[in-house]
From TrEMBL:
Residue ranges of domain Nitrite/sulphite reductase 4Fe-4S in the record: 84-219
GO molecular function: 4 iron, 4 sulfur cluster binding; heme binding; metal ion binding; oxidoreductase activity
Keyword Iron found: yes
Organism superkingdom: Archaea
Domain Nitrite/Sulfite reductase ferredoxin-like: 12-75
Keywords: 4Fe-4S, Heme, Iron, Iron-sulfur, Metal-binding, Oxidoreductase
Name assigned to this protein: NAD(P)/FAD-dependent oxidoreductase
Coiled-coil boundaries: none
Keyword Signal carried by entry: no
Length: 223
């Protein structure tokens, strides 16, 4: 039985024979030429379909193992990281860049967080999201680090998760600027890196030590 190939950023599919690759497209924002390139590669190598993933990447589904290297070469795009204990791709909405409801620039902050953390190795995986308004289209409340824009600045939330043990994130600071968010997330990531060697989501750690202790450890506050 074949398996996922981490070094090629290729994930085995349900049929046990074909693979999916997903070139990095931060925020799902791409130009027409990039979309055409992805479509051309999918067509050239007989992919079964294309699918936008929850990490806002366009996945090319159903490639043969022998075509993976050539497909990546033709794409000429960054693969990012698909498996393992890393910071995953930052999910963010259009914010004030495109959306009429946007109250903060989620694209600017999301891109900065993506460039700063994506692929950083940690004791366990970490997910981040930025929403430009309280509609929360990027689902920050179920991310380890979630940021929600309001008319009065950003709200910072921590400890969210979906999956078998869902947990809503705790609000730890309000009315923050982009610079204050970046500084706070730096401290959260460093805390997470240094908290033992156990494979735990951030929310589990917060439940163990208590929210107030966590806020004290990372220097968070509510304005």
């Amino acid at each position: 039985m074949k398996s996922t190939i981490p070094e090629k950023n290729a994930i085995i599919q349900r049929d046990g024979e074909t693979y999916v690759i997903a070139p990095r497209t931060p925020g799902g924002i791409v130009d027409p030429a990039t979309l055409r390139k992805i479509a051309d590669v999918a067509e050239k190598y007989g992919a079964a379909t294309l699918k936008m993933t929850s990490e806002q990447k366009m996945a090319i589904v159903g490639l043969k193992e022998e075509d993976i290297d050539a497909a990546w070469s033709d794409l000429g795009m960054d693969a990012g990281i698909v498996t393992g204990p890393f910071v995953k791709g930052v999910k963010f909405c259009p914010g004030t860049t495109f959306c009429r409801k946007g109250q903060q620039d989620a694209v600017s902050l999301g891109m900065k967080l993506e460039a700063r953390y994506r692929g950083m190795k940690l004791p366990y995986m970490m997910k981040m999201a930025v929403s430009g308004c309280p509609s929360s289209c990027s689902e920050p409340v179920i991310k380890d680090v979630g940021v929600m824009g309001t008319a009065k600045g950003y709200i910072l939330m921590v400890g969210g998760a979906a999956g078998l043990k869902p947990r809503l994130a705790d609000v730890v600071a309000k009315g923050l600027s982009e610079e204050e968010i970046l500084a706070a997330v730096d401290r959260i990531v460093e805390f997470f890196k240094d908290y033992g060697e156990n494979r735990k989501r951030l929310g589990t750690i917060i439940d163990e030590i208590g929210l107030e202790e966590f806020k004290k450890e990372v220097g968070l506050w509510e304005k």
